[in-house]
């Protein structure tokens, strides 16, 4: 039994390491310009990864909010993928310099330690951090002034929540497998459409959709969502695996979500 359990843990570790490997490879193979910038917010220096597209005209800007393990390699890879699609993308490391002696997500000893740091964050500080990033996004000379917010898992919930605080300073909030705010009254402050992306097999998150929809409808707000059949939680990351079958529900959901994301920008 112990041997079988050890092999199971080794298998999980191998999958995790491979996921990081292909994300790193995508970043290393990218021809696009990447840079780290620092923003002073919530009493500390917050690190941010920025990717620029190769285009001659000014571009819309995306703020990318990472999952509950921090700004890992996949989150940076997705940021670069947005740049590949023609957008400037900035991904704040929201746990950077929030734990003494730990400057960035990559400096945490384990992903569980990064997750613990995520759930220790003060909600108002996260809002302030995102407002600081939004201010920077609006100031980018290569940007056209239009800013979209997209988040995944914990970051999806933060994208939904930021829509209650950003007013009309963003064009839309995109929520990938994240939950809506629990306080029904805050939905009244949303001034932009919210678009949800959910996996059909993600029951924990999907159980909250009805409540979010009722709250949005009660305040006459736009909440448009799609549930992708068979896809699980974190399907954008899982579907990014270059060795995954094209018949994998996560791959299908990822491809459909990219198409939908681009259409949302086109229409909003």
Calculate the terminal CA-CA distance, rounded to whole Å.
Answer: 55 Å
The beta-strand count equals 8
Give the mean pLDDT: 94
Radius of gyration, Cα only, in angstroms? 18 Å
CATH class, please? Alpha Beta
Explain the overall architecture:
The structure is a single chain. The chain is of the alpha/beta class. It has a single domain, classed as Rossmann fold, CATH 3.40.50.1820. It is built from 9 helices and 8 strands. The chain has an 8-stranded mixed β-sheet with strand order 1-2-4-3-5-6-7-8, sandwiched between helices. β3 (about 60-65), α2 and β4 form a beta-alpha-beta unit. The chain starts with a helix and ends with a helix.
Furnish the topology, listing elements before pairings:
Blueprint (H helix, E strand, L loop, with lengths): L1 H28 L4 E8 L2 E8 L7 E7 L7 H12 L3 E5 L18 H9 L3 H17 L3 E10 L1 H10 L8 E5 L17 E6 L3 H4 L2 H10 L4 E6 L6 H4 L10 H19 L1
Parallel strand pairs: 3-4, 3-5, 5-6, 6-7, 7-8
Antiparallel strand pairs: 1-2, 2-4
Helix pairs in contact: 1-2
């Amino acid at each position: 039994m112990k041997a079988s359990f050890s092999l199971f843990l080794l298998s999980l570790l191998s999958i995790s390491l491979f996921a990081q490997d292909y994300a790193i490879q995508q970043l290393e193979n990218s021809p696009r310009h990447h840079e780290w910038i620092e923003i002073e917010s919530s009493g500390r220096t917050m690190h941010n990864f920025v990717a620029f597209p190769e285009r001659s005209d000014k571009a819309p800007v995306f703020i990318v909010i990472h999952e509950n393990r921090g700004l890992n390699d996949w989150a940076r890879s997705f940021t670069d993928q947005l740049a590949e699609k023609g957008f400037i993308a900035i991904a704040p490391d929201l746990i950077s310099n929030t734990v003494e002696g730990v400057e960035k997500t990559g400096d945490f000893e384990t992903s569980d330690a990064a997750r613990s740091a995520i759930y220790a964050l003060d909600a108002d500080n996260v809002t302030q951090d995102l407002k600081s990033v939004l201010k920077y996004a609006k100031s980018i000379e290569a940007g056209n002034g239009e800013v979209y917010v997209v988040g995944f898992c914990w970051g999806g919930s933060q994208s939904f929540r930021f829509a209650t605080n950003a007013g009309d300073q963003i064009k839309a909030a995109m929520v990938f497998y994240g939950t809506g705010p629990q306080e029904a009254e805050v939905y009244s402050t949303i001034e932009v459409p919210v678009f949800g992306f959910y996996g059909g097999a993600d029951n924990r998150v999907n159980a909250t959709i009805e409540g979010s929809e009722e709250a949005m409808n009660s305040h006459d707000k736009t909440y448009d969502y799609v549930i992708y059949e068979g896809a699980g939680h974190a399907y954008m990351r899982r579907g990014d695996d270059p060795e995954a079958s094209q018949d994998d529900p996560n791959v299908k959901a990822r491809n459909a979500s990219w198409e939908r994301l681009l259409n949302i920008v086109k229409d909003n």
